[in-house]
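Technical annex, item 7. During the second reporting period the consortium partners agreed on a shared format for inverse folding records so that results from different sites could be compared directly. Each record opens with the tokenized structure and is followed by the designed sequence. A conforming record, contributed by the partner at site C, is shown below for reference.
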């Protein structure tokens, strides 16, 4: 979910940028003024409470406003997120918004402030006044509005700066340039929200089948080094030729080549909710490489899952697989199967132990049916999505 607060003084161009963001990212627009008018026109309980306060010459309380916002958010589960315009206006409202987001199992990604010099704001609003017919688009009123804005919002901006949520865009630029700068910020925020899963398990544990099924269900990009290497060979690229040479010489494909393919995947994949890695990392060195690659792209590992299957069951499964079209090079004899299992124990188990100290590896019983294992994996992934 993408939740953005858009700030800027009168004349900063928030309306124009809001229209773009709503369409581009399927966000629901939240303006407290609009929401209050809607509730009052529908004569809802909250709307009538607000109307009574306004009729008495008072200001609608934060208690009423936050209930209306919560009602709006929970009523639009189809949205990819929410764009807040004009809220929070005070430091108290900033605390309220953070608390509300926690209650709804989400958070504000960032506050984007369209910074515009006062002279530019005044010029823009005076020009607007020539065609808008608005009585408040005169210099005296405009200056008062700007002063009020800066007095009220200074504490709010500082609140989000202290929490690392503040982002700034120069609003005096062209509409297109402002739009581009905002997109850059949002793309960075989206990359932080990716769900990146590393799926571990001994050969024969079902990682490949489960990984592909999970990727399809949750719109995750499935990253498996074997298929990526084979695909490069089929393309007959220079990289594919190098991979084939290593295969022909009985050598392991070096990390430099594997890393290039993974990075290419990270760079060229769009509209995904994250990645599910199978077969990488296999070694401690590769684990550090993966951490570095993800950090370079502004994201990180979200969840580590290991599918556990007893050794005798693994040997039985791999022996059965050796008689099918899905046979792998290490399936062709019992000695090769045992050697591959030993290699996993020596090289990959230390990686799992390392990650367990950092992320807490989730263990899934892989002896059950495919459907049961898939259901248990899905349960863990959905829990992770909720907590992101």
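Designed sequence (site C submission):
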């Amino acid at each position: 979910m993408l939740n953005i607060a858009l700030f800027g003084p009168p004349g900063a161009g928030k309306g124009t940028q809001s229209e773009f963001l709503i369409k581009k990212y399927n966000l629901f627009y939240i303006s407290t003024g609009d929401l209050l008018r809607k509730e009052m026109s529908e004569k809802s309980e909250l709307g009538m409470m607000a109307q009574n306060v306004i009729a008495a010459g008072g200001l609608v309380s934060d208690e009423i406003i936050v209930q209306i916002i919560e009602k709006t958010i929970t009523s639009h589960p189809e949205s990819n997120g929410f764009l807040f315009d004009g809220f929070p206006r005070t430091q108290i409202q900033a605390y309220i918004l953070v608390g509300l987001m926690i209650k709804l199992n989400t958070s504000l990604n960032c506050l984007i402030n369209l910074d515009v010099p006062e002279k530019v704001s005044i010029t823009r609003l005076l020009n607007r006044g020539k065609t808008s017919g608005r009585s408040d688009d005169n210099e005296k009123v405009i200056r008062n509005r700007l002063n009020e804005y800066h007095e009220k919002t200074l504490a709010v901006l500082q609140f989000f700066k202290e929490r690392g949520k503040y982002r700034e865009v120069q609003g005096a630029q062209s509409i297109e340039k402002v739009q581009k700068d905002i997109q850059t910020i949002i793309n960075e925020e989206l990359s932080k929200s990716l769900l990146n899963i590393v799926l571990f398990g001994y050969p024969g544990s079902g990682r490949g089948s489960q990984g592909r099924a999970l990727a399809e269900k949750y719109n995750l990009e499935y990253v498996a080094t074997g298929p990526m290497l084979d695909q490069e060979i089929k393309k007959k690229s220079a990289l594919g030729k190098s991979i084939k040479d290593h295969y022909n010489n009985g050598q392991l494909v070096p990390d430099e080549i594997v890393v290039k393919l993974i990075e290419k995947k990270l760079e060229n994949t769009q509209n995904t909710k994250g990645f599910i890695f199978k077969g990488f990392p296999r070694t401690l060195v590769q684990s550090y490489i993966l951490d570095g690659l993800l950090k370079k792209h502004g994201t990180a590992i979200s969840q580590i899952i290991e599918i556990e299957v007893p050794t005798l069951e693994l040997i039985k499964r791999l022996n059965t697989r050796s008689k099918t079209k899905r046979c792998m090079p290490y399936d062709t004899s019992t000695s090769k199967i045992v050697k591959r299992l030993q290699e996993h124990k020596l090289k990959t188990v230390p990686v799992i132990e390392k990650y367990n100290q950092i992320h807490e590896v989730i263990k899934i019983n892989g002896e059950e049916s495919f459907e049961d294992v898939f259901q248990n994996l899905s349960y863990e992934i959905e829990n992770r999505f909720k907590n992101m």
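The CA atoms of residues 309 and 368 lie 9 Å apart. The domain at 2-192 is CATH 3.40.50.300 (Rossmann fold). All partners now use this format for quarterly exchanges.
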